[in-house]
Amino acid sequence: MRSMPAWARVYILCVALAGAACASPVLSGRTPWPTVAFLVALYAGCERLTLPRGLTAGTFFPVLLAGVFLLPPAAAALVAVPGALLARVDRRPRQVRRLWRAAQLALASWAAAGVYGVLGGPAAGAAPDFPQVLAPAGAALLAFSAALAALDGGILATAERIPVRGAWRGLFPRSLAPVAVHGLAGLMMAVLWTSPYGPPAALLVLLPMGVSCWAFAQYHRERAAHQATIRALVQAVDLKDKYTRGHSERVGRASVMIARELGMDDERIEVLRFAGILHDVGKLGVPTRLLRKDGPLTPAERRVIELHPEYGHEMVRGIGFLGEARAAILHHHERIDGSGYPYGLAGAQIPECARVVAVADAFDAMTSTRSYRRARPVSSALKELARCAGAQFDPAMVAALARALGRDGWHPGVTSDGPEGGLPAARGVPAPAVPR
């Protein structure tokens, strides 16, 4: 939501108005205000204590879902609003992001409480009766996850400009697992809340959840440190060789598309993204005068530039979290027929991650405008990749990219480096599908 398009603002406003409409009956009905006030304060406090900087509100769902099981729909919708509106938000526009999250959680809680009541859940404040309560509680959790996924897809389509046909893909399954775990904790809170021991006993449920959220926060802090390392390296390359500005991020994006199409798990996809972003980091070891040379490269100069995969591998050797991305950095200029560099590996000798990045690198090199040539259309670039498949590129990787682009399209954030960032026409490229 960096630029916040007009359609995104309209969408957020509509969601906020819908959330306000869902919560408004609390003013006219018989609302259990002590319970609402306690849950509101508890949710806001839990979010402030458990969230690391850079994350948004809403990761601590047990209190919200306890409200779903204890309160009528309108009151349940109100529980998340103050905490979300006061949450720490690092990315701008902060107020809009707070409003969006408050409205999203209010609508999801309202929908879940409504489903819970319709399917036979106990009346507000009544003790849940096991095992009969499990079916309506499970349906409520499904409704909560579905509402979050539906609203998230809308914001991805309007604010992040993700194609409509792909905006909702995978959102519901990814939200269901954490909601299910937190939902069980929320149901336990509701059971203890209505027991003779009352709310103090319900708070005991939050202790293990608090520990898990602390571990989650530590993971995200570590991930943020990884991202900062990557950004620093990429910025250093961009400062030295303006030709690559934006190229690294786009290669990372194309590598992710290929990896997903090949069915890799999320951990490997993340590693492939790192590999794509850092594939040219070895250019930091190449003399700047060669990277910016005004004229064709001599054979000796070309041999120096062809050392950048080895330089890059040496630079990242000690960065443990990169995993197999280090092999991709070293081998992304190898060719299937064995004529590549630095080691002349062939076929299956080339690590799979390197074969992915090689195709992503070549695709972006052809579809990006430089000072010495215009960008090729995506269809033309894919034809060139197909022509070189089996000799320069792994045919399976080329086919995976073609399928992903055919389904999702190509939406690069940067399509031209500008005249000051390119290289002169005399520099030359050995073949259309051979990136630097």
UniProtKB/TrEMBL annotation:
Span of domain HD: 244-366
Source taxon at top rank: Bacteria
InterPro entries on file: Cyclic_di-GMP/3'3'-cGAMP_PDE, HD/PDEase_dom, HD_domain, HD_GYP_dom, HDIG_dom
Low complexity compositional bias, start-end: 424-436
Extent of the signal sequence: 1-23
Keywords: Membrane, Signal, Transmembrane, Transmembrane helix
Keyword Metal-binding: no
Alphabetical list of PROSITE patterns matching this protein: HD, HD_GYP, PROKAR_LIPOPROTEIN
Gene3D superfamilies: Hypothetical protein af1432
SUPFAM superfamilies referenced in this protein's UniProt entry, alphabetically: HD-domain/PDEase-like
Residues annotated as transmembrane: 60-87, 99-119, 139-159, 171-193, 199-217
Residue ranges constituting the HD-GYP domain according to the UniProt record: 222-417
Region (Disordered): 411-436
Listed name of the protein: HD-GYP domain-containing protein
Source lineage: Bacteria, Bacillati, Actinomycetota, Actinomycetes, Kitasatosporales
